[in-house]
Amino acid sequence: MKSLLYFKMNDKENYVVEVEFINEIIKFRELAEIPNSDPEIIGCLKHRSKIAPIYDFEYITHKKHNDINENKIIIIIEVGEGKEKDFIGLLVNEVKNVINIEEEKIEKSPEYAKLNKGYINMEDKILNYLDINKVIQNIYVPEE
b or e along 30-58 (b: 16 or more beta carbons within 10 Å of the residue's beta carbon)? Predict the structure, then answer.
């Protein structure tokens, strides 16, 4: 059985990610700017005495910017290990809930779905099961 955080980007895009990677879920708040940063980075905030860059998940998946407002949610994700642990944030539209799914219900993802581990076919929707390691590899460069 897998425990997965279910979040949405819009009415047609539903995602899940393993809860073990989630550190915290917070409402959007004003971010500090990062001059000359990559376009998917919308700013940063202080989280547990570390600076966490915040990434626009809409930009990561579609190369277009999300409308940023106080109704958005930031999912804080742990990256790295031990003393080298850092945090990043993903700006998403809505966090629904945690769902428990039997592993047999997860369908393998095709090669072209570059950020997915698989799909979960629900009665009324399909959930994209994100491979958070692939998402992080796509966006996160640890400090030297």
Answer: ebeeeeeeeebbbbbbebeeeebbbbbbb
Is the backbone of residue 57 left (phi > 0), alpha (psi -120 to 50) or beta? alpha
**82: phi then psi, degrees, rounded to nearest 5:** 55, -135
CA distances from 87 to 25, 90, 99, 136, 141 (A): 12, 10, 23, 11, 12
Q: Domain extents for the chain?
A: 2-139
The yes or no reply on domain 2-139 and CATH 2.40.50.180 is: yes
Whether pLDDT at 140 is above 60: no
d(CA 73, CA 107): 28
Q: Cβ of 144: how many Cβ atoms within 10 Å?
A: 3
In this prediction the pTM is: 0.89
Taking only the tens place, the pLDDT of each residue in 111-124 is 888 899 999 998 88
Do 52 and 86 touch, CB atoms closer than 8 A? yes
